[in-house]
Amino acid sequence: AEVLLVTSRDPSCEGATREWFAHHFGAEDIELYFCASHVDEKAKTKGRLCKELGVQLLVDDNASHCQTALDEGVDAILFGRYGWHHGATAPVKQCRTWGELVEVLYD
User: Which of 11, 30, 70, 107 is the Cys-Cys partner for 34 at CB 3.0 to 4.6 Å?
Assistant: First the structure.
């Protein structure tokens, strides 16, 4: 399975973001896409960008990004256990740890 990274960070953070991923994942040729919807309401949502890229599943720590994926027909998993998940209403599966996520992906 091919993995694409989609971030809502401002594109001005691209260099630092690529450097961080290269450092932590050892990959320099990372397919990284910026949608900037977190900082620009007029920008393409993560869900829309995922649909356009042919993504089948979005794993995200933000319930609203998961909802935009679901709205576009892309499956989504809400990842982690964070304070901003409190009251999340997206009808999405939640995996709180990397172990849980691996179980769901390979079950």
Answer: 11
